[in-house]
Amino acid sequence: MTYTAVVLAGSRPGRDAFAEQYGASLKALIPIGGEPMVRRPVCALLSSDCIGSVIVMTQRPDEIAPALPSDARLSIRSSGESIASTMLALCSDSDARWPLLVTTADHALLDDATVDEFCAAAVDRDIAIGVVERGAVLRRLPGTRRTWLKFRGGAYTGANLFALRSQAVAPVIELWRSVEQDRKNGFRLISLLGPLVLLGVALRLLTIDQALNRLGAKFGLKVGAVQLSNPLAGVDVDKPEDHALAEAIIGGRA
Questions:
Q1: What is the mean pLDDT of residues 210-228?
Q2: What's the domain range around 163?
Q3: 53 in a domain, yes or no?
Q4: For residue 201, what is the domain's CATH number?
Q5: Of 74, 112, 201, 238, which residue is most buried, by most CB within 10 angstroms?
Q6: Higher pLDDT, 21 or 195
Q7: Alpha-carbon distance 101 to 211, whole Å?
Q8: Contact, 109 vs 249, CB < 8 A?
Q9: Considering its fold, how many domains does the chain have in total?
Q10: What is the DSSP letter of 31?
């Protein structure tokens, strides 16, 4: 199956102090490993045989364009003011080529092997969500701080990789919009599944797959997690500590 990859490179309104700290006008343009951050996941996607084309979504295409590689499979489009509004617009686009693989511009350590692994495991899901298990991350990066979602059988961090099979996923994106501003809050995310599921997760009665199966059942969709083998898939660059960590990993110092 060949995916259309969507790279979310938008920014929030107002000043971006994180970007300014590194002399960049946008977070996606912060330099990492000697190149703009957004270029790294885009190149990983273009290197994967599972990806047919890549769309970079941003409110400021003219600033992002010079940071991207030259490739006929790559295009840039204007995004909405939020991730949810951007994705809902794609869902209503009659020209959209499904399935979609969605990631973010701050996924600076993404590689083509991880993209291939995720795509292969996601083929039978309406929605697939990439995750990395806590033990794997901490063995590779002791002491790193991530957002952990805790279930029976393990704790996981998101890998900023999502597979969407068709326009039928739009109601789930609409539901997610309600907690978009709290997406780093594990319990706020789990609250989407309803009070009984939230209680089951809090008491560690449900595995991650059981919780996601219940979400899918509400919409008649098959929703599941894809546990990725590379622990670096769980690292995004949201703050200065993440930037230092990513630079150290790329430079072979971590």
A1: 92
A2: 3-249
A3: yes
A4: 3.90.550.10
A5: 201
A6: 21
A7: 22
A8: yes
A9: 1
A10: E
